[in-house]
Amino acid sequence: xxxxxxxxxxxxxxxxxxxxxxxxxxxxxxxxxxxxxxxxxxxxxxxxxxxxxxxxxxxxxxxxxxxxxxxxxxxxxxxxxxxxxxxxxxxxxxxxxxxxxxxxxxxxxxxxxxxxxxxxxxxxxxxxxxxxxxxxx
Length: 137
Hints:
By secondary structure, this protein is mainly beta. The protein has a single domain (2-127), classed as Tumour Suppressor Smad4 (Sandwich), CATH 2.60.200. 13% of the residues lie in helices and 42% in strands. The protein has helices at residues 2-7, 69-80, and strands at residues 16-19, 25-28, 30-34, 40-42, 45-47, 59-64, 92-98, 100-113, 116-127.
């Protein structure tokens, strides 16, 4: 499922803007927000775009700022390594431990939460709510 997310849809549309505390970042092709790692699994393989993400912290985010197939393939392959995707790299951005962030678009874009399609949106706001859930292991 995760691999399909990278190559399905209009990955060549840089209409997203991520506002996460600092100057907004325009020209984003794909963005996701996490609160734990791994983000998802491809079979038994964990996919880690934000390997420092933890339930106990704020939100983490990943944004693809270049849509070339070689770069996207490299980024995706790094997410499968045990250490996950490095926090800093060419063609993408990551943010760590945020209280809130906003992802907006110049036109409606597909939006989903936990694999559930929620329609098209032009703006989505995310807020961290510490200790909103009690995790029992």
